[in-house]
Specification:
Two copies of one chain form a homodimer. Chain A is elongated. By secondary structure, chain A is mainly alpha-helical. The longest helix of chain A has 29 residues. Chains A and B meet through helix 1, helix 4, helix 5, helix 6 and helix 7 of A and helix 1, helix 4, helix 5, helix 6 and helix 7 of B. The structure holds a DNA duplex.
Chain lengths: 182, 182
DNA sequence: CGCCCCATGTAAGACGTTACATGATTGA
DNA sequence: TCAATCATGTAACGTCTTACATGGGGCG
């Protein structure tokens, strides 16, 4: 297998396919839209871009000029486009499905036995609060970006929102099982 | 902050709190129950155990004897129990919430624009198939282990199942939006 | 002039992955 | 006895994290 590409690498390819960006602009996307959990750190993005360039999947062109900040715009090559398609077309595997939300659930699963029911309740309450404050911002993102998104992009966002709504329902239900018999 | 502990580390602490295990037994748990997405590879587990031991959170005792395979049983120390509790009691943060199921959704979000609607449909179909075959095994796990699990463990499993059911519903709904106008 | 933001990078360290290596014991 | 399984590791490699470093440009 030739050099594997990380999730971050594919996220970068996907963003660059839409429109050419500099590394800094890509960072801002990861920070702002929070669309992803990908690292916005320069120590992750710049090396990743260089790797993609060395593999011939993207090409960077330095833009310079008077009264212009030096920066490097990256765009996909034909090879990069092909690799992105190849990756997209892979069938979904069990392992991919399993890799969902880990840490919080692990904490909760262990909480009652290791720290008592009150710890479980606290986790559920803070989870509920976090979701309640996060969901509206996601819905707002959906409404704002809906016109610009391709159908699959919109659906993916909706999937995230529904997943969180589902989790919120579960948290409320789980809380009721702790009521009255702490 | 003293040496940070990885997710895998906390998973190991959680399992060892329930009952002392050897490294090999821990590996088997990760392989078999698929309870987690944690690595079952010796290259991950044994170094992680040694790190925990060096931090004084667990202690290993080698069991040997005639007609007995040499193996090392690990158990939590008081310090390890305390650290596990401390971690469990941390409030849930936004970042923790966001870190859910990444790769498949990224693929799907990019699919329509980068590879056409038929690629989107194929992802949805294989996701649906994978979920349809995975969910029953999860439900079976829940039924089998229900008696032995603490309440929070059972609820965590239920949360996973409900999340996948939710995702399956979404996949079906998403598929309908692609019907008739490929 | 000084400060903050743009924009890019590097270095040290930790962790996980993959692959390989080692022996002992059970069971056919 | 021969293979499979038990049980534990090691080595190379790549990636991410954290933190620091560097410069130019806009702005008060």
């Amino acid at each position: 297998m030739r050099e594997a590409i990380s999730d971050l690498g594919y996220a970068l390819l996907g963003l660059l396919r839409q429109n050419p960006c500099s590394g800094y602009e890509l960072r801002k996307i990861f920070v702002a839209t929070a669309m992803m959990s990908y690292s916005d750190s320069p120590g992750a993005i710049y090396p990743a871009l260089r790797r993609l360039e060395q593999q011939g999947l993207i090409r960077g062109r330095i833009e310079e000029g008077p009264g212009l900040r030096r920066r490097q715009m990256f765009r996909l090559t034909a090879k990069g486009t092909a690799e992105l398609k190849r990756w997209i077309k892979r069938p979904v595997t069990r392992e991919e499905v399993v890799h969902c939300g880990r840490e919080v659930m692990l904490r909760f699963a262990l909480s009652e036995a290791a720290a008592g029911p009150s710890a479980s309740v606290k986790i559920l309450e803070s989870l509920e609060a976090e979701l309640a404050s996060y969901l509206p911002s996601l819905r707002q993102q959906l409404n704002e970006q809906k016109p610009m998104l391709p159908r699959s992009g919109r659906l993916a966002l909706e999937s995230g929102i529904q997943g969180y709504e589902c989790l919120l329902e579960w948290a409320k239900y789980a809380l009721t099982t702790y009521c009255g018999k702490e």
